[in-house]
Design brief:
The protein is of the alpha/beta class. Helix content is about 45%, strand content about 15%. Bound molecules: 1,3-dihydroxyacetonephosphate and iron/sulfur cluster.
């Protein structure tokens, strides 16, 4: 068993040697966030990493995020320290599901949340994130739009377009979907001056109670910009670490800390990061045909936002 300082030292040395960059999603364990070169939401991490001259990307997050990094940085080696760290929501929709939807609704554009596999992205017209979904959908003149895989994000976007019909796939994030209005009401009662911010992956009844609805990076921005001192945070518990670190003068409460833990986001330990750098495992490999099609869907989104 190595001590933590020794592990960190080895990681940093090997990172230099490999010309690697370490990325950590906002939900990663504190010790992983602390050693990362960049911390952020899935898309911003992939985009920022693509602009560096690193030869290796070590993505501490879940598999679809590492795939996104590979989609935008095909010339770099992308590794994820634990290969089984997967997003339950991304795994709910298969390429066959997308093909079936396209057959059922011919000609209707498919807008796919980045929390999806590369194969699913490759079958989509455009991608979106939780931060830009409203804008992306708004660029389509079509009266009907298919959104997948998150029904909660789709139903949130629907609120902004009463003249459109958003046809959604019934996928969801089990951990955001588990947050109930009664959990939020209880937290609001306990902390009456706190602002409640919900992630759009939460169910509609929870969104109804929110003062703000935002992605993880949006929550970090709001916490900094708003004059309020207390916040109730409706997303995966991991976000409380960067929120508290960046805003030491503010207090962040979680309405259901025991329910909103994404196990896949907690799998990566410092030992795994070291092994990933030593063995360059687990490498993300995508068939070029899939990568190019998925890239086109991501690129179209980037042209809109
Ligand atoms: P963000 O894109 O808001 O970081 O969300 C990622 C995610 O997995 C939400 O559960
Ligand atoms: Fe996927 Fe939910 Fe985990 Fe985010 S919190 S990675 S959406 S399972």
């Amino acid at each position: 068993m190595q001590n933590r300082a020794g592990l960190v030292e080895k990681i940093l040395k090997l990172k230099e040697k490999r010309k690697a960059i370490i990325l950590a999603h906002n939900y990663q364990p504190p010790e992983i966030q602390d050693i990362a070169d960049l911390r952020g939401d899935s898309l911003e991490l992939s985009l920022k990493a693509s602009k560096t001259d690193a030869e290796v990307i070590v993505f501490c997050g879940v598999f679809f995020m590492a795939e996104t990094a590979k989609i935008v940085s095909p010339q770099k080696k992308v590794v994820i320290p634990v290969g089984s760290a997967c997003c339950d929501m991304a795994n709910m929709v298969s390429p066959e599901d997308v093909k079936a939807l396209r057959e059922k609704y011919p000609g209707i554009p498919v807008v796919t949340y980045v929390n999806s596999t590369a194969e699913v992205k490759a079958l989509s017209d455009v991608c979106c994130t939780s931060a830009n979904a409203i804008k992306v959908v708004g660029t389509f003149p079509d009266k009907k739009i298919i959104m997948l895989p998150d029904m909660n994000l789709a139903r949130y976007v629907q609120r902004f377009y009463p003249d459109k019909e958003i046809i959604y796939f019934e996928g969801f994030c089990p951990f955001h979907h588990m947050l109930l209005p009664e959990d939020v009401m209880k937290a609001k009662k306990e902390h009456p001056s706190a602002v409640f911010i919900a992630h759009p992956e939460c169910r509609p009844e929870v969104i109804d109670l929110a003062d703000y609805v935002a992605s993880t990076s949006g929550m970090l921005r709001l916490a900094k910009e708003l004059p309020h001192k207390e916040f109730i945070i409706g997303t995966e518990v991991g976000l409380l670490y960067p929120l508290s670190k960046e805003n030491p003068d503010k207090v962040f409460y979680h309405p259901a800390p025991e329910k909103m833990v994404c196990p896949s986001m907690k799998k990566i330990r410092l030992e795994d990061v070291l092994r990933a750098l030593e063995e360059l495992e687990f490498e993300v490999v995508l068939p070029e045909e899939v990568r190019i099609k998925a890239y086109n869907a991501v690129k179209r989104m980037l042209e809109i936002v």
